[in-house]
User: What shape does this take?
Amino acid sequence: MILAIDIGNTSISCGLFRGGRLARRFDLPTALAASRTGLGRRLEARLAGKRLERAILCSVVPRVTPVVAGVLRAMHIEVAVVGRDVRVPLVNRYRYPRQVGHDRLVGAYAAWKAYKHACIVCDFGTAITIDVVTKAGEYLGGVIAPGLDISLEALATKTALLPKVALREPPELLGRDTANSIRSGLLFGCVALCDGLVTQLKRRYAPKAVVVATGGSSALIAKHARTIDHLRPHLVLEGLSRLAS
Assistant: This one.
């Protein structure tokens, strides 16, 4: 059994893989890593009774990476860190290759391996990233935009009268109260952003690309976006499992 860990800005996403298949998944708040003891207790509780061969992790929060790796090593679990111990086997065409988040590369790699085709990967997490990988396995780059939760938080904190609302699907496109006007604007605005950017990226860089959606808000977006071909919410964990195999 392999433990795959994707350390994001909001959550630490963990997946247990057996024979390349996701057997169990859970999330921990990234803020929990402020206490190595607290994180260790939560991980030990989640992994109790599991016989792990090793763990692999990628991270977009550098200060948290050694904390998580240290907790796992204290549990006598061998740990490999993407970017340090493991290289993602794509040709990185970014102008400054080291600026690409490892989660973006791992997601692009997972999609490319799964579909053996040019892919556009739309990751709807804390940030929205839409990345292009060619059939030949070249990571070309992508776009970054604020995610739904960031946008909700910004409206609540940067305006005097707009409330913070829970993210869920509104009853219709036209908002008939403030909360649903916000939900409609963010959800359908994100859908329009996805469809518009994917259409342009396909036209300019990868006309026959397979479009894959992943990330915490991906199911909500994929329900309405016309350009998404496949929904794989745990694509980065799948890519980590492949890299560890």
In short: The mean pLDDT is 95.
